[in-house]
Design a protein that fits this description.
Structural class: alpha+beta
Low-confidence stretches: none
Strand content: 25-35%
Order of helices and strands: HEEEEEHEEHHE
Number of domains: 1
Distance between the termini: 35 Å
CATH architecture: Roll
Largest sheet: 8 strands, antiparallel
CATH superfamily: Electron Transport, Fmn-binding Protein, Chain A
Mean pLDDT: 87
Radius of gyration: 14 Å
CATH class: Mainly Beta
């Protein structure tokens, strides 16, 4: 899928999610979705993206796959530069701090991630980069 199409679909998903407070757009590919708001590393402006997430206790787990493209998604690079962010799950917003999984954590989590959405296995096979796993810890 072309990047411009991905951006349009993401924009549509965010709007529907916001307007319905997550009643529509809360689930995709049999998984829960959140809206992540990061601060742009160059612009300093808010950057919002819908993402599939898993839970690890109080923390949320998101995957920087970008569909297996060779480059990292902007939201991931924004979190590397500024780990403070906000998530919205349904109508609830929460401040979080991002932490990139260590190689051991990623290895432990990867089977759970692929079990949640098989597409991640294909995404990893499309790229030479190791797809990062990111923990979003509540602040």
């Amino acid at each position: 899928m072309k990047d411009s199409r991905v951006r349009r679909l993401s924009r549509w998903h965010r709007r529907i999610y916001w307007l319905t407070q997550g009643r529509i757009g809360r689930r995709l590919v049999d998984n829960d979705m959140l809206i992540l708001t990061t601060t742009g590393r160059r612009s300093g402006l808010p950057h919002e993206v819908p993402l599939l997430y898993l839970r690890d206790g109080e923390s949320l787990v998101v995957i920087a796959s970008y569909g297996g493209r060779p480059n990292y998604p902007d939201w991931y690079l924004n979190l590397v530069a500024r780990p403070e962010a906000r998530v919205q799950i349904a109508g609830r917003r929460q401040m979080v701090t991002a932490r990139i999984a260590t190689s051991n954590e990623r290895e432990a989590w990867w089977p759970r991630i692929v079990e949640a959405y098989e597409g991640y296995r294909q995404y990893q096979s499309r790229t030479d980069r190791i797809i990062p796993v990111v923990f979003l810890d509540p602040r």
